[in-house]
Amino acid sequence: MALANPKGRVNYEPNSWDGGASGPRESPEKGFSSFPAEEQGAKLRIRSETFADHYSQGRQFYMSQTETEQRHIANALVFELSKVEMPKIRSRMVAHLLNIDQGLAQQVADGLGLKEMPGPADAAKPTQNLKKSSALSILLNGPDSFKGRKMGALVTDGVDSKILEALKAALKKEGALLEIVAPKVGGVKASDGSWIEAAQKIDGGPSVLYDAVALLPSEDGAKLLVKEAPARDFVADAFAHMKFIGYVEAAAALLGKAGVEESRDGFVVLKGEEDCAAFVAVCRQLRCWERGER
Q1: In this structure, are residues 111 and 105 in contact, taking their beta carbons and an 8 Å threshold?
Q2: At 268, phi and psi to the nearest 5?
Q3: Which of 55, 62, 169, 216 has a Cα at 20 to 30 A from 251?
């Protein structure tokens, strides 16, 4: 048993650093040694009968999730099992799901395109309907702020400096970060003539890096962005990943080109300072799950 955490470049031996002199070493005098205890009777390795209940906890976990989380579980199972090459193995896994929840099993079977639903897998013990627990749900125990999160702001030359500064201030007050994404990593010239340094170039700073995004191009900048695939992907990916999207009116053309309808859930138009604060407040939900339910 370790009584301390050795400090240094390596914590194992043998090693090649410092000629093998550094790092922890065995100590026959102080190290572990077995106690020569005398035993009587049969020494057995057994398990409790509850170990034969293979499905009750799985059912309790699934039933404790929100509808959104249950849908994600089903989609994840479909995704993973679609990588399995042998159809009989996919079918066998669905047979296990039938012992957890028939609705879940049916969703996965439909997603995999199974020709027929298998029978339930043999269970050593029948599945129990354990009491639901809200503590098992991530969404029911999510954060109530955007603190510690990061927002990506897509900007171009002519970006409205007042909107950008208001968004920065709102995020700073929230305890969140703002990262500037621009057509060129050198930055852009704002509407007031100031220079805005960028942290990412558009094709190197995709929206998957951020918890929410703000689209702040100028009218002329938006006309250039609609021609750029990375800019369209920036918007489309944020939409597909249920992220909240704040945008100035000039970005409407980019939204349209990316196949995104700004009238859908999770969009906030940024016209003034109040809108920026409201947008950050909305982002506390982290994801717009309603978008995926349509």
Answers
A1: no
A2: -130, 125
A3: 169
